[in-house]
Amino acid sequence: MQDGKLKGALILVVEDEPLIAFDICASLEDAGARVLQAAKVETALAAIDAHACSAAVVDYWLGLEPGRAVARARSPRRT
Predict the structure, then answer these.
(1) Which of 8, 10, 25, 66 is least buried, going by the fewest C-beta atoms within 10 A?
(2) What is the pLDDT along the chain (79 residues), one digit of tens a residue?
(3) What's the CA gap between 45 and 42, in Å, rounded?
């Protein structure tokens, strides 16, 4: 994925397994994206509030916390 199709995109990666997070982040960066990384729901929600992310890649289970709270917060339809 080194064609730069994601150039300029800011992608939030929410993953609590370090090796998986590293692999995802490296692939996105290779594609030209800027990447923010979070391993906990609280950190991810703070990143969403602080940055205008283009997209998010969210692990469904973050330890004992469900990642769906992050996906809901990231949704453009949230109220």
Answers:
(1) 8
(2) 456 789 999 999 999 999 999 999 999 999 999 999 999 999 999 999 999 999 999 998 887 888 888 888 766 544 3
(3) 5
b/e burial code for range 43-60 (CB count within 10 A of at least 16 → b): bbbebbeeeebeebbbbe
Radius of gyration of the chain (CA): 12
The answer to whether residues 53 and 38 touch, using CB atoms and an 8 Å cutoff, is no
Q: Six-digit token pair at 32?
A: 């030209």
Which of 27, 51, 30 has its CA nearest to residue 38? 51
